[in-house]
Amino acid sequence: MDAIKAITSDRVTFRKDAVSYEPLNYYGKNIISTEMSEWKRHRAIAAPAFSEANNALVWTETLRIITDWFNQLDATQRTEKSASNNAFSDLAIEVVSPMATLLITSAAGFGRRVSWEDDSAAPASGYTLTLRSAVITAVENFFFRMLTPDWFPAISSIVKVPFLSARVHATQQAFEELGRYMLELVSSARASVVEGRSSASSAALLHNLVEANTSPEGGSKCLSDGELLSNIFSFLLAGHETSAHSLGFAISLLALHPEAQSKMYAEVRKVWPEGSGTVGSSSVSFD
Ligand code: HEM
């Protein structure tokens, strides 16, 4: 325990592997890719958003999103009786966990409250990719994007090279659409910052980041335009992929260990004998 404490709290001796995070600096530097005084500045801006009020918001948003998903699943199963349990668990691990965690991160951190249905089927109007596809494609092609000069996409759309042109196009599209999704988030938050509304709103993280972007340059709580976009991108990514993988493993392990599953279920029933009852007026049943 003492060793864990020392490693996680002594940031001078145990530094993070900042070099391996360099690809995250595409838009600018961010809380993940920086160290020492630069990191402290990013941290001081973002940290206050992770409060008890925000934890409560994460919980209500999780209930809303999972209830949305269950409702959609119920409707589908009424028409597709053949859906097997295996298909359900594969779906839960590969699709649902990352979808759910991205929707929760973007709602609780950035005030983007969309329904399950809105984001699972089709991209938003004016886009060819959903937010999740744009985030994932951009991440998967980060190195590729960094290694290709800016004039390359224009050339490759004229001179078609098998596989390469398609990848160049997909990468360019993902970065362009992700940039637009992020700017939409920024412009919705800028109004509340300009009007002087408090950060105790639903999008405390975004509010704090945008507020720092409007602070005088060089200040201890200031973010440049590039750092603003870079932090939004990093939180979207860090907040959803990690939680999705943890959930994926948790679901698989619970399926492999029914005794642990029963224990967990009993504890859930003890805390909420009547279901959670906190999504709008309808209760979430655990039966
Ligand atoms: C089960 C879920 C999660 C796991 C396993 C996880 C894991 C980690 C690990 C291992 C680090 C340290 C990386 C390093 O120092 O090299 C880290 C840092 C970080 N994580 Fe997570 N994380 C999770 C959830 C989240 C969520 C939900 C968010 C945001 C909403 C988030 C945002 C961050 C940020 C911003 C950092 C950098 C912090 C700093 O350097 O000050 N993570 N995470």
TrEMBL record:
Cell compartment(s), UniProt:
Membrane
GO MF term list: heme binding; iron ion binding; monooxygenase activity; oxidoreductase activity, acting on paired donors, with incorporation or reduction of molecular oxygen
Organism, scientific name = Serpula lacrymans var. lacrymans (strain S7.9) (Dry rot fungus)
What cofactor(s) does the depicted protein rely on?
Answer: heme
Name the pathway: Secondary metabolite biosynthesis; terpenoid biosynthesis
Superkingdom, taxonomy of origin: Eukaryota
Under the heading Gene3D superfamilies, the entry gives: Cytochrome P450
**Predominant localisation class:** membrane
Q: Which GO terms describe its cellular component?
A: membrane
The family database entries (InterPro entries) matched by this protein are listed as: Cyt_P450 (IPR001128), Cyt_P450_E_grp-I (IPR002401), Cyt_P450_sf (IPR036396), Cytochrome_P450_monoxygenase (IPR050121)
UniProt protein name = Cytochrome P450
Family affiliation: Belongs to the cytochrome P450 family.
Coiled-coil stretches noted in the UniProt entry, renumbered to this chain: none
Which keywords are on file for this protein? Heme, Iron, Membrane, Metal-binding, Monooxygenase, Oxidoreductase, Transmembrane, Transmembrane helix
